[in-house]
Each structure stands twice: as C-alpha cells, then as structure tokens.
Amino acid sequence: MLSTFRATIRMLLRTPSALVWGLAFPIILATMFVFMFSGFRTAESINAVPVAVVADDAWNTSTFSQVMDALAEGEEPLLSCIEVADEGSALELLSTGEVDGVFMVDGSAVTGNATAALDGPNPVLALPRLVVASEDSAAHGGANGGYEVNRSILVSIANSYAQSEALIDDLAASNSAALADPEAVARALSLDARTERVSLTRSTPDETVRFYYALMGMATLFAAQLSMLAVASIRPTASAVSARRCIAGTSRIRQLAGALLGSWLLSFAFLTVAFAYIRLVVGIDFQGREALCILGVAVGAWLATGIGAIVGSLPLQGGVSAGSGILTGLTCGLAIFAGLYGQPTMELADAIARAVPLSTWVNPAKLICDLFYSLYYYESLAPYLARLAACAAWGVAFFAFAAPMFRRQRYAHL
Amino acid sequence: MRICESALAIAFRHPIYLGVYVLFLSALGTFLTIGVQSGSTRASGSAPAAQQEDGYAPMQASVAVIDRDGSELSAEISAHLGETQELVDIADDSFAMQDALATGLVEAIVIVPEGYEADLLVSARSGEELPALQIAYGTDTQAAALLDTQVARWTALASASAALEPFASASNVAGLVRRASAAHADVSVERDVAAAETARPLQAYLSFTSYSITCSVVVCAGLVLSTMNEDRLRARIFAAPVPPRRLGLNTLAACVVLVVAVWGATSVVGLVASGAFASTAGMLPTSIVLALMAMLVFAFVPLALAFTFAQARFGEDALNALGNIGGMLMSFLGGAWVPLSLLGDSVRAVAHFVPTFWTNDAVAAVLGAPVLTMEVLARYACGVGVTALFAVAIACVGLALTRHRV
Lengths: 414, 406
Prior knowledge:
The complex is a heterodimer. Chain A is α/β, with parallel strands linked by helices. Chain A has 2 domains: 2-39 and 204-407, no CATH class; 49-189, D-Maltodextrin-Binding Protein, domain 2 (3-Layer(aba) Sandwich). Chain A is built from 17 helices and 5 strands. Chain A has a 4-stranded mixed sheet with strand order 2-1-3-4, with helices on both faces. In chain A, helix 2 (16-36) runs antiparallel to helix 9 and helix 16 runs antiparallel to helix 17. By secondary structure, chain B is mainly α. Chain B has 2 domains: 2-41 and 195-405, no CATH class; 57-181, abc type-2 transporter like fold. Chain B has 16 helices and 5 strands. In chain B, strands 2-1-3-4 form a 4-stranded mixed sheet, with helices on one face. Chain B is elongated, with a radius of gyration of 30 Å. Mean pLDDT of chain B is 82; it is low at 41-50. At the A-B interface, helix 2, helix 5, strand 4, helix 7 and helix 8 of A face helix 2, helix 5, strand 3, strand 4 and helix 7 of B. Strand 4 of chain A pairs parallel with strand 5 of chain B, so a sheet runs across the interface.
C-alpha cells in the first residue's frame, strides 16, 4: 500500500493536468477575483450616493438644501452632491451615469400651511423634486449594477421631506395651536434622530468574502481530478503499467487505498496552498479561525477524493479524458449553485438555498462554501461542525460506493 | 472532403467535451438568465400608487424588526417598514439573528430596545437626546443603509410629532406619523434609450456564452487541429497526393462547422431560455439576429486561439485548461460576472483589450435600443469589427508559429 501511495503522489506530481486543475486554477481564479472586487465597496463603508443639485435661488433659500448639506457631511456621508446651474446640465450628468439622481426645488411648490408655520425670516419648506433614471439604465450599470438601491435612498430622502410637510399640514388642520411657535416647530423638525449601528455576527458582513469561499468550494471539486486520475490509472485497462500492477501480489483494495490516500494528501496540500494564497496574499479574513479552516480543507479534500474515486471507478469509454470532462462539467455546474459566477448567480444560489435548504447539504461546492462562511459569521461552532460532519459523511458514502464498484470490475480481455 | 470528415470525426470521438462544454455549459447559462430575472423582480416594491404611476418602483429590501418594547410605537415601526419593505419574522435569539444575516434572509435587523416608546416621548418633549434604534447591517451595506435612512426618518417624524403635540398619547403620535408617512415626493424617471426590459435575460445569457463558446471551441477545435498537427499523422497525409492548401482548407472547413454548431447550439438554448421567441415586444427581431451574429463573429476568436495553441503544440490537457481559464478571464473582462461599471478603473481599462468587451458592447447596443438608428448600428459595427480584428490578429500569431515550426 505504501508503494502505491508513493507511486500515486509521484504520478500525480508528474501529470500537468493535475497540477493545473488542483493547484494553478484556484490561484489564477483567486487572482482574478482580486481585480474583480478591487472596485467594490468595502464591507463597513457606505458608498456615498452621487447626486446633482440645481443650485438656483429657490434651492439656496430652501431648507432642503440644508438637509442635503448635512447628509453630504460627516465621516460617512450618505450623499455626494454636485452643484450645477440649471436642470439641463443636471440631467446630462444623470444620462451619463455620473450622478444617480437630480434634486431641484421648484419655488412654486411652497405650501400654505408650511409657509405659515415657518413664517418670517426662516427658510420656506419648498418641496424638492427628484429625477432618477430607470432601474435598468445602462449608464448606471444595467439591471444588476446596484443602481436601484442608490435610487431608493434618494427617493427616501425626498419622501422624508414631503412627510415633514404632511405632518405640519396635518397638525395645522387638527390643532393649529401646536404650530403657534415657529421656533418650537423648527426645533421639533430638527431633532437629531439617529440609529445605532450594532454588529450581531462574529464579523462585519462582507459581500466579497463569499465569492472566495465559493472559490474554495470549486477548488475542492477540482481537486477531485486528482483521485479520479489516481483511481483511473490503476484500472488494468488504463495502460500497460496498470495491467502489470493488476497481476501483482497486492490486493485491489490495498492498491485503491494507497491511491486514495496519496491523492487525498496531495489534494489537501494543493487546497492548503490555495487557502494560504487567499488568506495571506489576497488578505481574505477568516476571523482568526485559520486552524479550523485547515481542518475544513482536510475534510473537504476527503470529500473531493471520494467524488474522484467514484468517477475514476466508472467504466467510462473515454477513459481519463471522459472522467476529467465529467468532473469539469460537474464542478462548473455545482459552482453556479454556490454562487461563484458573479452577483446574479450568488442571488440565485441564495434563493435556491432559502427555497430548498436541503440543496445546501447535497451540493459539495455549496457545502464547502458554507463551511468557511459559518466560521466567518457565526459565534457558535455548531454550524461549522454540522457541515464538517456532512462533508465527512459524504466522503464515507462515496468511498463505500466506489470501492465495490472498483473491485468488482472484470477485465476478461486482459 | 474526406479530410474534413476525418477532422470532424476526431471531434466526435470526444463526445464528452461536446456534451460538457457545448450543451451542459449552455444549459448552465440558462440559470444565469433565471438569476437575472429573479434579481430584477427585487425592484418591484409596494411603492405609493402615485409614484408607481410615475414609473418608479422602489427596491424592496428585506428587514426584520426585533421588538423588545412591545409598545404602540414599536409596533408602528414594524408596520411602517412593512408597507414598503419585505418584513421577515425572526426570533429574538442570537443564533437566529446571525443566521438571518449570514444567509442573506434579511438585509438588516432593527432592534427596538425595551422602554423605547417612553424614552422617545420624554426626550422629544424635553429636547434631550433621542433614544437610538439599533440596526445590524447584512451583507448588502447599501441596502442596509437604505433601511437605516428609513428608520431614522421614522424616528424623526415620531419625535417631531411628540414634540409638537406634548399631550398626545403614544397612539395619537403613531397616528400622526402614519398619516405623514403616506406623503411622497415628486419623483420622475428619465428613461434612457438602452432600457429594453425584455432584452436583459438574453443579453446576460449571451454575455455568459463568451465563456462556454471559448471553452467549447478552444477544446474541440483545438483537439482537431492538434491531432491533425501530430507529426506521424502529418507525415502520412503529406505522403498522399493532396496539396497542402487543400489539407488546410478542409481542416479549416471542419473547424468552421464546429464553430457554427457550437454557436447554433448555444444560441438556441439562449433564445429558448430567455423567452425571446415568446415575447419580442421589447426586442426587435433584427436586433436579436444582429446580436447572435455578433456572437458568431466572436466564436472565431477562440477558433483563432485554438489554431495558435495547436501550432504551439499544446496537448489535450493544456487545451482543456487554457480553454477554461481563458474563457473565464475573457467572460469576466467582458462583464459577464460583474457589471464592468462596478469594477475598478484599471480593470475597465484592461477590458478594452479583450474581444468580449467589444462583442458585449455590440450586443448591448442592438438589444438595448428600441430602434436601430445609425448611431446604434455604428456602435454595433465597431464592436463586431474590433472582435473580428482580434480573431485575425490571433490567427496571424498562429500562422507565424506555423512558419517558425516549418
């Protein structure tokens, strides 16, 4: 068994496709992700929404301009305002995608009750008007460009102002004495209403880390190529060497065990390199739980070895090429449901996971992805341990299925 | 002709590649279109009627409210958020809340602390610092910021109501806030020319097919070309009275057949999955044809790559790896994974040097335009032309390698 183990490792290290799929591919993909997410917002910060304001006389005398100024200030401003002279220039900025909306104040929109309430030298409650682009505007990144969120923020701000005005109107109609003191009204409308941002999870939520965890899921499945190659190469019909090994004095199961052990060790080593690259070079946060991640990688390699063992044991006509093709297709397919291929697939994966929770335990790519994710997000180790156990159980099931299939094959023509 | 048939036989002797790369990956592309369709449905929130009439439909984010106060005002917060957002019910339990945020079930969790109502009424009326509602953000920071804005706005309205009506009960304050919240601003939507709603799934699918077409053609055509390039086979073929030109043309013809077959299969899957056959209301039939033609032109880029790889003596494994990695890179830089507008400036600059960028631009031009104007056609022609030039340039590299080898 030890000889088979050594021979397997040597054989796999000399096989270019094993090195490409098991070692190079995850690193290349992780490097691609670095560029892919370089322009993304960071986890903790809010991207200020760019907005154009038509800074005419009506704007300058309105209280809304003060609200906008307040929202564009501070450590984490919600808005980034660009002042323009006229509506045409502002709409031009909107059409080119430089701003997500245009605010303007129409002088004629001043309402009676509001003016009466804030009579005197105070600025008037002139209603703002907002112009936005359609949610699938190409200039704003298309349907999945995240524009709808920014647009909704702007509408929410505009609505808030209209709601203050509605409150004043309501009070004027029901209890006009409440508005007798303009200073008290101004004070009431300017009370500092804030929220307190708290963190309920182990780490700050970050959209981008999930893609790297999905990548680990895909890398694990690609590692299945190693055991597939190892198992396929000890099938007697694979080559002249395999045929000679078939008549050696070592039992088939011992040969299989040696091949699987060798491919598991190499899978583990390759996946650890990929993990180290993601952790140390890319700088993805694993919340100080790296040791548990390595354990996850080891169990993931076990699962991958099981998958490869099954495919390698199948009596396929095309031999290793056919097995490689099946695994490549399987990997690409399952990675979609782990959300690897960008935002639309991540949303699809989330939707499927919510609709059919069982699917997250059946799809190995998603299982591995969630294994890392549970370490990142949950204080408790229970979700992680549950997924770790699931990976191990799947591995056992695959080996239990592959071993008899491999052993019972007959090669009558040899 | 026999050479052409033999070349095709090489490809068909590897049905697993045709099955996995052409059919399976195309089928997977359909899931991407489903993802795009499901993503777009998120925008259809329950906006105030007047705003919906204006053509504006706000985004509907999902939020959970943990009510530890059990008061009228805290119930009003839930009701207020439930009017415009998707309200999700989760237990007031640490693990349940972590789970909801981790799985993306909610974009944010709002926690109403115990004694909130009493504190708010007292502090609003005395002018003291208002009590803060707690909010935990999910993975989509911007969506959570939207919810944060709405919660802060509700607090401002409630505190203003309480301050202006010093003797009003909590239910009266809640009533004032409810009525005021019904008001909305004047919002108008500027629709740009590239806003054909029904074109989005097909456009997303075609963008993804840059990956499947690259994989398929590089591997399948590359396999044919590299096999035909094997020394022993070449020696036997050249021993026959067949001019090298005919050999080359026949091999090329086989590869073109493969390219057209790959393009045809992916196109049919895309048209069916995106519903382009069923509803062409937002898409002109001519636009669809032009978009598919752009993809056909693009398919010659991986053919040129396959030719170059074959001349460089890459084997089956190398073709497999290069096809996959190259396909992923090209589709990524074409904006298939993440919209290019969300990527960094340097990546967007690099994208201009990749054919998928130009192909996708040509496809976006014709599918997004309600009318095919000269301007749209010029943009389309530019995209397709640059793509074709990429194919020619790569093929020239392959020819140079051939010359070097001979």
